[in-house]
Automatic annotation (TrEMBL), chain A:
Protein name: Na+/H+ antiporter subunit C
Any one annotated GO CC term: plasma membrane
Transmembrane segments: 6-28, 35-54, 66-87
Source organism (scientific name): Roseicella aquatilis
Location(s), subcellular: Cell membrane
Highest rank taxon of the organism: Bacteria
UniProtKB/TrEMBL annotation, chain B:
A Pfam match: PhaG_MnhG_YufB
Name the record gives this protein: Na+/H+ antiporter subunit G
An MF annotation (GO) of this entry: sodium:proton antiporter activity
Keyword Transmembrane helix part of the UniProt annotation: yes
Length: 109, 97, 311
């Protein structure tokens, strides 16, 4: 079952990339994207576990697969909510980041 | 006989992959939007068409073969539409394009 | 040979993810994310999880891509603010070390997983027949992890409610999203007319075959939602007012049917969400049909966003 090795490493690296982007990037939209990359890495870890558990005629363990399908739908719902929150914030304050806002809604100049 | 058909299929799929490669190089290297679109449509239409053609001998059943053709048809439809819309948008903004 | 394909694909996934983070504009980043989603879809196929691949393509790349693209055009500007808020080199290095450490720990943990791997594949394959489902993933979603699936369907309803509640008070009950001009001619009008009937059939087909083959309510429902979004963008339909009873019914039909089936399990079977033997297949079909409708409605409403216009 050597086929999972590339994806194990990719999944761990994706979590790292997503976490880095989430911390470092300032724009809210970029943070949402980074969070989705992080989530993609976590899902891929489930994929690796599912593939390792293949057997009895199943190409991958169905239980982690079902959990990832649930996770993907919930991640979409969370992303949709995050995007709408970002848009509303932008609409009200004009801000594109969640940096410590000054009185006028913009970060310290 | 089956072997010959599948050999032809592999050749067609390889040619299709070649179109994808050329189309991708064009998409990255061409200077303006319309020529990039030109490169992209080659990969979409011809490249995928050849790959689908090459996969037909391996499809195993008539239903699977028809599904492959349907995928190609849908990509043609969607790709053609998007290319038209991007080109129309570019013509409005980039003079001489 | 197979190994090379997997290494290449894993490298491409990481490359697309890195591009998504490093892209010069928000638009380029979102396009990079959609490409990332499609590459991950291929990875799921390579991992033998075709059900997940379909979900990733439809929801992870497709639906998420659409809402992000719609957001990116509205979030233009703010470049100065963003560069002012971007952390300095020291924070970058610290974050890089932290993230790298987390990634390394995860990689080590995955590589140290027990071999042979424990799993429930054999149990899921052996018992899927009790529900009349050939697809083990569908059997797990409806049977073994039925409670998860029920709660997930409720999450979708809550997400729609949360999105709606972002509207200003005076817009409550109004019509969500921008209004697109009706396309009488041109490529988009043609696509909407040609693709819509085909897409509806494919969406229902994908939901229907989910019982036996890869597919299911989430994948099929997403295709149906996409068809509605296409008709909306082409100006053929207008989003319904969120006060509409029909919309609210479509939204909750799935969770409601699921919940009723759960209580029926208490009356006829062994407990909440236990499918009564003999009745399992028809009940699951009813719940799945209602869920397909609700998933389609919820996803379309999440794409349309909060109400912006008076009904």
């Amino acid at each position: 079952m050597s086929a999972v090795l590339p994806y194990s490493i990719a999944a761990a690296a994706l979590v790292a990339l997503g976490l880095f982007g989430l911390v470092v990037q300032a724009a809210v939209l970029r943070k949402i994207l980074a969070f989705n990359l992080l989530g993609g890495g976590v899902f891929l870890l489930f994929g690796v576990v599912a593939r390792r558990g293949a057997g009895a005629g199943a190409t991958a363990d169905p239980v982690p697969q079902a959990i990832v399908i649930t996770g993907l739908v919930v991640a979409f719902a969370a992303t949709a909510l995050a995007v709408v929150l970002a848009l509303r914030m932008h609409q009200i304050t004009g801000a594109a980041t969640i940096a410590e806002a000054a009185e006028d809604g913009f970060p310290d100049k | 006989m089956i072997g010959a058909l599948q050999g032809l299929g592999l050749l067609a799929a390889a040619a299709g992959a070649g179109f994808f490669l050329a189309g991708t190089v064009g998409l990255i290297r061409f200077p303006d939007t319309t020529s990039r679109l030109h490169a992209l449509t080659k990969a979409d239409n011809l490249g995928l068409g050849l790959v689908v053609l090459g996969l037909l001998p391996f499809a195993g059943s008539l239903g699977a073969a028809l599904k492959l053709l349907l995928v190609w048809g849908l990509v043609l439809l969607a790709g053609g539409t998007v290319a038209q819309m991007i080109a129309a948008r570019v013509r409005g903004t980039e003079p001489g394009a | 040979m197979g190994g090379l394909v997997d290494w290449l694909l894993a490298a491409l996934v990481l490359g697309a993810a890195a591009w998504t983070l490093a892209a010069p504009t928000g638009f380029a980043a979102v396009v990079g994310f959609v490409g990332f989603g499609l590459l991950v879809t291929l990875a799921w196929v390579r991992l033998g999880a075709v059900d997940v691949a379909l979900t990733e393509a439809a929801i992870g790349a497709g639906a998420t891509g659409v809402i992000l693209l719609m957001a990116v055009v509205r979030l233009r500007g703010g470049a100065e603010e963003v560069s002012a808020a971007t952390p300095g080199r020291a924070v970058m290095v610290a974050a890089g070390l932290l993230a790298g450490g987390v990634g390394l720990a995860l990689a080590l943990a995955v590589l140290a997983l027990p071999d042979p791997a424990p799993g429930l594949a054999a149990a899921a394959m052996a018992r899927r027949g009790e529900l009349g489902l050939g697809n083990p993933v569908a059997a797990v979603l409806m049977g073994y992890r039925g409670l998860d699936t029920l709660l997930e369907s409720v999450v979708l309803v809550f997400a729609v409610l949360a999105v709606w509640s972002m509207a200003p008070d005076r817009r409550w009950g109004g019509i969500p999203g921008p209004r697109f001009p009706r396309q009488e001619a041109g490529p988009l009008a043609l696509l909407a007319r040609l693709l819509l009937p085909i897409g509806l059939v494919i969406g229902i087909h994908v939901a229907w075959v989910g019982a036996e083959a890869p597919g299911g309510k989430f994948q099929g429902g997403t295709i149906l939602a996409a068809m509605w979004v296409l008709a909306w963008v082409a100006g053929l339909v207008q989003p319904p007012a969120i006060a509409s009873q029909a919309v609210r019914l479509a939204l909750v039909a799935g969770p409601l049917a699921f919940l009723l089936a759960g209580f029926a399990g208490m009356a006829l079977g062994e407990g909440f969400l236990a499918w009564p033997p003999g009745l399992a297949k028809p009940m699951i079909l009813l719940v799945e049909a209602a869920m397909t409708l609700s998933v389609a409605a919820a996803l379309a409403l999440l794409v349309a966003g909060p109400p912006e216009r008076a009904a």
